[in-house]
Structures are given as C-alpha cells and as structure tokens.
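Lab notebook, bench 4. Still working through the backlog of constructs that have no structural model yet. Next entry is a single chain of 174 residues. Request: give me the structure tokens for it.
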Amino acid sequence: MQAFAGPVILDSCCGVGQSTRLLAERNPDALVIGIDKSAHRINRNVEQTYDGDNYHLIRADLNDFYRLVKTANWPVKKHYILYPNPWPKSKHVQRRWHGSAVFPTLISIGNQIILRSNWRLYLEEFQLAADIAGLVGNIMEVSDNEPLTPFEAKYQASGQQCWQLIVETACYGH
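Model written out:
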C-alpha cells in the first residue's frame, strides 16, 4: 500500500473476481482489491477481459482483513459488498454483515459502502443498522447496463429486481 498513492476500492466477497475487474476498469486511478475467503472461487478467475494492473484478488478472512485495513488506515474510497448470502433464517443474523461483531469496523473504513442485492429486506436491515450507528444510506434500483457480478446477471436475466444501498461513511471514524 505504501507504493500506491491513489484511492483504494474494496470489493468484499468478490467470488471469481468479475466485479473486481469491472470496478478496476471503471476506476483506472484507483487500486481495486477483491477479497474472498474461498481460494476455489478466486482460482476460477479465468475471464481476463481487462488487462490493467490496478487490481488484485486476494484470499482472506474479512473479519480479520477489515481490522487490519482500519489499523493501517488505508485510504478506502469505496467499499463494495455485492450480493451477500442473506442467511434468511433469523437465527443466522450474526452471519449477516450488519449483525456481525465486525460491523463497527466495517462501517469505519472508507467513505462509502455500496451493497447490492436482489433481496431488498437485506439492504433495509443494513440501512437500519447503519442508521443506528449514525450513518445515512439510500436504497435505489440498480440501473447498470453491465452487471457487476454473475449473480447480478442471473437475477436481471430472470426478471428479478436488483437493489443498491449506498451508505455515506465519510463522517464516521475519519
């Protein structure tokens, strides 16, 4: 990180890295870091349609990674969490980002958190948790013509509505 002077974009739970590549292409001045806990998913990163050198895919446990990013005070501009598994059972609320012990750290890094899901209730829950923490977020329909993830492409192709929550965090912890 010390050699890079520009903004950083995090792409949490990046899966096969399609969203990381697209974000890097759309943000050539930023370093885009895709993080996933599964080596299998990252190793399936075979689509190389963008040959820029401003992105990296890494395998990490995000609970630890977020704490390290905060400690190192990385200049995170945007933080994407795209199509997280919503764990619809109420007993699994701590597996949702907004119900986990790392949530205070997650919302204290970066200037903006962007979540996307086809399950609006997940975004509403995250928005409520952010509101309790003093942050403002807005939910809107996804209007991208080019889907960021394979899940987004699948949901759009089947006619499902995809939603986006943007939470402004610049006033929190900076």
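Notes after review: DSSP finds six helices and seven strands in the chain. The chain has a mean pLDDT of 88. Flag for follow-up if needed.
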